[in-house]
Amino acid sequence: MKAILFYLFLISSFFSVAQEECSLGIGGQDDETIAEVFQLSEIQLEKLKNWSAELKVRNDHLKNQAEYLLKRHAQSSPEDLMNISYKYRDLLDSMKQNSRMLDKRLLSIFNDRQYNFYIKLCNQLTLRPIYIDRSVNEK
């Protein structure tokens, strides 16, 4: 019985891979695709444009910090490099958080049809959609 439970646990842990989040990719080359696929209104397009610019400013600042960190410690000891890697990872995580925050902003101004289409696309791609509170939005 213990062997069966062990194998069931092993198999379930093997197949229970965490789904990736279904991000829109605001601020990149996908802005035009986002606008076309979700048929954004003029107001939504304007907000998308502004948020893309905001993301670029935020992430450029973090990229500059990361580049400075790498240049400053190019000849550091392995121990120092390990500490720097944690700082670098934190900067990359901040960039991801910025992108997710702006994805959530855009999703919050989607109408029901657009948001349901987003959910459907994510499910087809077996990605985890970003769920937002539809009762509060930036309209």
What attributes does this structure have?
single chain; mainly alpha; 0% strand; elongated
Structural summary, described in words:
By secondary structure, the protein is mostly helical. Helices cover 70% and strands 0% of the residues. The model is unreliable at 5-10 and 12-17 (pLDDT under 50).
Sequence-ordered SSE layout with sheet pairings:
Layout: H1 2-15, H2 31-37, H3 42-72, H4 78-109, H5 112-124
Helix pairs in contact: 3-4
Strand tally is 0
List the total number of helices: 5
Shape: elongated
| Rg (CA only) | 20 Å
Q: Report the portion of residues in β strands.
A: under 5%
- Low-pLDDT residue spans: 5-10, 12-17
The N- and C-terminal alpha carbons lie at a distance of: 58 Å
Major sheet characteristics: none
Short recap of the structure:
The protein has five helices and no strands.
